[in-house]
Structure formats: C-alpha cells, structure tokens
Design a protein that fits this description.
- The protein has about 350 residues and is α/β, with parallel strands linked by helices.
- It folds into two domains: about 170 residues, Protein tyrosine phosphatase superfamily (Protein-Tyrosine Phosphatase, Chain A, Alpha-Beta Complex), CATH 3.90.190.10; about 120 residues, Up-down Bundle (Four Helix Bundle (Hemerythrin (Met), subunit A)), CATH 1.20.120.
- Helix content is about 50%, strand content about 5%.
- It contains 14 helices and six strands.
- A six-stranded mixed sheet has the order 1-2-3-6-4-5, with helices on both faces.
- Helix 11 runs antiparallel to helix 12.
- It starts with 6 loop residues before the first helix and ends with a helix.
- Bound molecules: heme C.
- The site of heme C has 22 residues, from helix 11, helix 13 and helix 14.
C-alpha cells in the first residue's frame, strides 16, 4: 500500500506499538526467572565469531571467577552452567542417576561412544539420548541431532561423556548457545575455565566459536527420533571397549597394581586380556581406516598390531605379578606406559584434530 494509512488505522498501529512495549517490558522482567519453553522458543543463537585463529586462546578472553565442580563418588565433575544445562561425567549406577534426577533434570544426553543404560535412567524418570560426537569436532549431522534434542525434548539437560571434561562440555556449550542464547565467548570460557576442556581439542572449541548453529526450521525438518542407543560400526565400538579396560588399568597402575578395595571385582590381568581382545577386534573390522580425513596412514595398522601385542604382554606381566615373581610390577608399569604412548601417538594423528 503506497497511500498513508487512514487515521483510525494509524491510531491502531500506535496502540499496537504501546502493547509491544508493555509486552517487551514483561519479557525483560521475566529474564531472571526460571526459563519456560515459551521463552526458549524465541532464543536466537549468537552468530559465529569472525577472525578467530585459535578458539582455545579465545576461551581466555573473558575471565570467569574460578568455580569448583560438584564431585561425588557416583557423579563426578558436575557444573550447573544454567537452569537449563548441566555438564558432568558419566553417572555411576542408580545412585548417580538418582542424583541427576534430583537436580530436576529430565533429559540426559551421552556424547561418548558407550551405549547408555536407558532402562535404569527411565526408572528415575530420565530420558536418555545417545549422540556420540567426535574429539576432532562436532560433525554437522551430530550438531543437528544435538540442537534438535535441545529444542524439542524436555529440559533441564545433563550432558556427559566418560569424564565430563572434553566432549561433554562441548555439547553442553551448544546447549548454552541454542537454549540460553549465551554469548560465544561465555560458552568458550565455561569449557576452558570451568570444565577444563583441553587445548588438544581445538576442533571442539572451534565449533563453539565459529560454526553457525542450525536454525529452528532446519532442526524441525531434520528427521531424527532421539534413540537411546546409537549403533555404529566395528572400529569405534572396539575403541570404546579398549578405553574402558584402559581406564581400569590406569587406576590400578596408579596403585602400583594393588587391588582397589573400592572395586574389589577389578582384576588387572583380566582387564589387560580384554583390552588385547578389543584391539584384536579393531584389527578385524573392515571400516577401521575410514577416519574422517579418509586418508590411509600406513602406520595405522602397525600401531594397532603393536598395541594388541603390548596388551597381551601386559597381561603376562600381570600374571607373573600375581605369582609374586620378582620385578614383575615394574615390568608391568613400563609396559603400561608403552601402551599409553601408542594411544597418544595414534590419536594425535587420527582422532584429536
Ligand atoms: C591406531 C590408532 C589408535 C590407537 C593405537 C588407539 N586409538 Fe583410540 N581411537 C582412534 C580413532 C581413529 C578414534 C576415533 C574413532 C571414531 O570416532 O570413529 C579413536 C577413539 C577413541 C576413543 C573415543 C571413543 C568414543 O567414545 O567415541 C577413546 C576413548 C579411545 N580411542 C581410547 C584409546 C585408548 C585408551 C587407546 C590405547 C590403549 C587407544 N584409544 C588406542 C585410534 C586409535
């Protein structure tokens, strides 16, 4: 319409404007209160930061007052980042789940490779969604799953990986952007200064600094029904097994291989054998060279074969130790360090960046 609006209509528009102001003021007044789904629906995630060279370095541009995590035997490294978002480690048993439920959380999202125990969680009124993400960053399909979950499932959300230090906090930071509309600098600072996400994982930081968050129309159109267990192929599954046994062995190595009274069921030799078995599985599955970059590194198979052999020898050392053979503990410790060196050598090339 090119002619000016007739007077009654203009007055009507003025009234609308006034109503808009009142409505805006009401919304502002509501800011400090617990968020509602209605309020969240309007959250516009901040645009990507421009010209960031190191996202990890950028995570130090805003300084947060130091904050210690909540730490319990059944639930470690917990940060309540907002009324909507908690970040922490994987819950241990019913007690861990009970604690998460007591925070008021409704949806738990696991972003590591291990299949979560959704049935146990359901007994505590919690819905589990399994959205494994990469250490080298969050792929576009993974990001869509995460953002859709934040937009469409019931919060508050508890995000976790194994230890709640790297991938879990990165996923939580996505929630901070899309549910809370937090500034990118703030979300980055929380990863680094609260959760302690390592600078080794620049790819995780980069997503929070520089990747545009999918909009509501995109997540609404994306077909995904939030499965409680994400099934993936051989190599990654086997690697999840490797890391479980490795974690147990690392804890025992730290006690000079003495039994752990808190976990009397842990047997070092059996753990080493199972780790060797898991490495054997990485060697037999067909998709093991399908790393993200798709390039074939000739060292890859060699590292896996060596890791398998070293794990097998570690089991032998630990058997000798059980028989109280002289020097067996020191041998086992050296062997363990050699295994760990290989994990790192390969991850630096193929997993972390
Ligand atoms: C020869 C290479 C190689 C070796 C050796 C290796 N890894 Fe990995 N690991 C990978 C790759 C590649 C991935 C990423 C797989 C993917 O995301 O598809 C990975 C993934 C992982 C993950 C993430 C699994 C998840 O939850 O998604 C963990 C944890 C892990 N490795 C632990 C270990 C440990 C512990 C060791 C040593 C005992 C080890 N790895 C040895 C290549 C290796």
């Amino acid at each position: 319409m090119s002619t000016p609006a007739p007077l009654p209509l203009r007055r009507g528009l003025g009234l609308l404007g006034l109503l808009g102001l009142v409505w805006g003021a009401l919304l502002l007044a509501g800011c400090g209160a617990e968020p509602t789904r209605e309020a969240e629906a309007g959250v516009v995630p901040p645009p990507p930061l421009e010209g960031v060279e190191s996202a990890y370095a950028h995570a130090a541009t805003r300084t947060l007052a130091p904050r210690a995590p909540e730490d319990h035997a059944d639930l470690h490294h917990v940060y309540r980042l907002s009324p909507n978002i908690y970040s922490g480690a994987e819950p241990h048993g019913e007690a861990g789940l009970r604690r998460i439920a007591a925070y008021g959380v409704r949806t738990v999202i696991s972003v590591d490779g291990k299949a979560p125990d959704a049935e146990a969680a359901a007994r505590h009124g919690l819905r589990y969604v399994h959205i494994p993400i990469q250490y080298k960053g969050i792929r576009p399909d993974e990001l869509l799953r995460l953002v859709k979950a934040f937009r469409e499932l019931e919060g508050p959300f508890y995000l976790h990986c194994f230890h709640g230090v790297h991938r879990g906090p990165a996923a939580a930071a996505v929630g901070r952007l899309v549910l809370d509309g937090a500034a990118r600098e703030q979300a980055l600072a929380e990863m680094r200064q609260y959760c302690g996400t390592s600078g080794k994982y620049e790819g995780l930081y980069r997503v929070i600094a520089s990747v545009p968050m999918p909009g509501p129309a995109e997540t609404a159109a994306f077909e995904y029904d939030f499965p409680a267990v994400h099934r993936f192929g051989g190599f990654r599954q086997a690697m999840v097994g490797v890391s479980r046994h490795f974690d147990h062995l690392e804890a025992l190595a730290g006690r000079d291989w003495a039994a752990d009274p808190e976990h009397p069921d842990l047997n070092a030799e059996a753990e080493a054998r199972q780790m060797a078995q898991a490495f054997a599985e990485t060697l037999t599955c067909g998709d093991r060279l399908c790393t993200e970059s798709g390039d074939h590194d000739p060292r890859f198979d060699g590292w896996l074969t060596q890791s398998h052999e070293l794990s097998r020898l570690l089991a032998e050392d630990l058997r000798a130790l059980a028989r109280k053979e002289e020097g067996a503990a020191a041998r086992a410790s050296e062997r363990f360090v050699a295994v760990r060196r290989l994990c790192n050598e390969c991850h630096v090339q193929h997993r972390n960046e």
